[in-house]
Structures are given as C-alpha cells and as structure tokens.
Amino acid sequence: MIHEVDEVLKGLLRSGALAGSGIEVAFDAPTREWAARRNAPAINAYLYDIREDVRRRERGAMAVRDERGIVLRRRQPPRWFRLSYLVTAWTKQPQDEHRLLSAVLATLLPHEILPPHALPDALAALGLSVPLSVANLHTESRSLAEIWSALGGELKPSLDLVVTAPFPSFPEYDAGPPVTEGAGVRVRGMDGTLEGSPERRHRARHLTSTTAADTAPGTELPAGDHPVAEDRNGEKRAK
To answer: Largest alpha-carbon pair distance within the chain?
Structure first.
C-alpha cells in the first residue's frame, strides 16, 4: 500500500505547475551524502512517519455485494494510516528552491483527495476516498528540527504532506446464501393438535408483494387459529 501511494504522489508532483519541467521526484532520505550527489533540480518527498489514524478505526464486518446488491462475502473494515512526507526542493540557489516549493503548493492544494482515476487497483477496489493535506499544522510527536538533526543535515524549507490511506484487511470470507422465503407459522388448537388451516408464512416485502391484510397491524387470525399458551397452573388458555 505504501509503495502504491508513492507512485500516485510521484505522478501528482509531476503534473500541474511542474508538468513538462523534467524535475526529478525522489523518495530518498535527504542526507548530506544524498544532497552532495545532486547535479540537477529535484523534488524530494521523504516518508518520515507512519502511524495509524485510530479515529478512523471501525468495528464489525463490511459486506461485499454484487451488481444486484446481494451480499457475496464479508471482510473486516480497512485500517487507516497517516503517511507523512517531508517535501523539499533541491537546486543551487535558494530562490529557485522557493519557486519549486511554490509550484508544488500550486499542484497539491487543489487536491483534497488523491485523484480516484490515479489510484492503483488495490486501493480503487475499496471504493474509498484517500485524503491528502499539505502544509498543515505539524502535530506529530517529533519536530521538523529533530527530523533534520536525525538526517544529519541543516534545517531547510519544507512542506509537510500527509496522505491518510486505507490498508485492506484480509482475508475475506463467504457469506451465507440470501433468504428466498419467509418464516413459517403453524397454529395448534386448545387440545394441542394442529388445526386444519394451512401453514401461514410471512412473506418479506423484498421477496414478493403482500396485501394490506397481510401487512396491516392488528390483523386478526381466523377463528380457531389463535396460538395457545399455558398459565402458571398449567391450564391452557388462548392468547
């Protein structure tokens, strides 16, 4: 899932204001050694933090339906993870880096979600939107200064890009066959024997049409069809 989000971001960063520029998009850690090897302008999107968004966690099972709406399988809901990227521009002049960062902002700001047509099959099959945010308030436990210190580099202008992506839960399991008829009701007389009336069946509305007498509240059973219950003394009485 993570590498698939990387590919979507690479395509997104190469579009918009940066389309046709030939700017390289890299996902390497922007260390001193990496920076020393750069001989052309580049955009770096370094994945520095992965953590679950527990506010989005769901319980229970999700239904997998066919084109008729019939439940075929069930699966656990996906778990959502926040992928945080440190986006930086690398050129020989600070002014050129600022121009590149401005172009990145112009490219990403119109997108509050990753473009659905650009999602890989595994993510598109879930039918869920994948949110994207850029340059929001930094809320992770580590500050950007600490991140740069861990990378062994100097603090540099950057954009905080966060993609909240669903991670599919496996496996799926088959659901039971759909209900095709309603529940049957048999009525006994006062002596405990079955009455001569045919078995009554409740017909579900989504299976067949029903008459007003079948569905109207308060409809009474014909004489002799009343169910029987026993009281505390063991005497039988009609309900």
So the answer is: 100
